[in-house]
């Protein structure tokens, strides 16, 4: 069943108003008709409803709530990907697939070896594009939230917010002695709901040693993923999958 997101202001008693690009998608792409049923999620409350379409207008579609439904699409694992900015098509893939896997936030990170550099002038446009990809992936995968694409950070910025997370992990090809598996086992010992985990992933060119040392000093866990070196777009998907599976999230 098609799923669409609304905000509190679009719900009045049992009436829901669909606005924006979703109007065209429902009317002209899906070619839905009056009395057909859609699933609607309130992103402000994560409540889900089955709703019947009651009318079409040029700039809005009105629906009537049939029933409130229980959704278990979201886990209590709050996973944030801090992604060294890769070429744009790779970033789009990372956001799309990681959204499907349950990641809740993405932070593009400007690192020394980033091939792509985004100017302040272009930052808002880029983030808007990535946010739209997140929204489309969230709809397709039946999420109850749209993962947030945050403003570009630096390695030093990450170190300043480390206390907001139960653990931040960085995979590094030269790491020894402490594996990703070790970090996951350590996370399993944290007995709390809504655990917050960050994963810092290098760009195509990898990390500078100074960046790794800065994160180590701040308390970030530097781990090895084994003997093979993965592409930057593979790392996010592999680590997200393992974390969600091992800690009880849904994949």
Mean pLDDT: 93
State the CATH architecture of the largest domain: 3-Layer(aba) Sandwich
Question: What's the CATH topology name of the largest domain?
Answer: Alpha/beta knot
Radius of gyration using CA atoms only:
20 Å
Compressed to H and E, one letter per element, the order equals: EEEHEEEEHEHEHEHEHEH
Summarize the amount of helix as a percent range: 25-40%
Which descriptor suits the 3D outline? elongated
Count up the helices: 7
The fraction of residues in strands falls at 25-35%
CATH class of the largest domain: Alpha Beta
* CATH-level-4 superfamily name of the largest domain: SPOUT methyltransferase, trefoil knot domain
Structural domain tally:
2
Largest sheet: 6 strands, mixed
Strand order of the largest sheet: 1-4-5-6-3-2
Oligomer: single chain
Task: Give an account of the 3D structure.
- The protein is α/β, with parallel strands linked by helices and 251 residues long.
- It is built from 7 helices and 12 strands.
- A 6-stranded mixed sheet has the order 1-4-5-6-3-2, with helices on one face. It has a 6-stranded parallel sheet with strand order 9-8-7-11-10-12, sandwiched between helices.
- Helix 2 runs parallel beside helix 3 and helix 2 runs parallel beside helix 7.
- The model has no long low-confidence stretch (mean pLDDT 93).
């Amino acid at each position: 069943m098609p799923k669409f997101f609304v905000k509190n202001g679009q719900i009045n008693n049992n009436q829901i108003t669909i606005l924006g690009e979703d109007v065209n998608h429902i009317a002209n792409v899906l070619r839905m008709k009056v009395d057909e049923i859609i699933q609607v999620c309130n992103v402000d409350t994560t409540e889900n409803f089955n709703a019947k379409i009651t009318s079409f207008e040029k700039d809005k579609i009105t629906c009537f709530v049939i029933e409130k439904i229980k959704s278990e699409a979201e886990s209590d694992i709050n996973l944030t990907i801090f992604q060294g900015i890769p070429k744009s098509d790779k970033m789009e893939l990372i956001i799309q697939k990681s959204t499907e896997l349950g990641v809740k936030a993405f932070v593009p990170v400007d690192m020394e070896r980033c091939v792509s550099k985004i100017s302040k002038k272009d930052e808002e446009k880029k983030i808007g594009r990535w946010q739209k990809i997140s929204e489309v992936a969230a709809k397709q995968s039946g999420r109850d939230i749209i993962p947030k694409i945050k403003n570009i950070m630096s390695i030093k910025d990450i170190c300043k917010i480390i206390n907001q997370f139960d653990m931040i992990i960085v995979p590094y090809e030269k790491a020894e002695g402490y594996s990703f598996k070790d970090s996951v086992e350590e996370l399993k010992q944290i007995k709390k709901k809504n655990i917050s985990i960050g994963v810092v992933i290098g760009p195509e060119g990898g990390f500078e040693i100074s960046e790794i040392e800065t994160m180590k000093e701040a308390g970030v866990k530097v781990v090895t993923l084994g003997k093979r070196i993965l592409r930057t777009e593979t790392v996010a998907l592999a680590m997200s999958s393992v974390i969600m599976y091992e800690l009880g999230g849904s994949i």
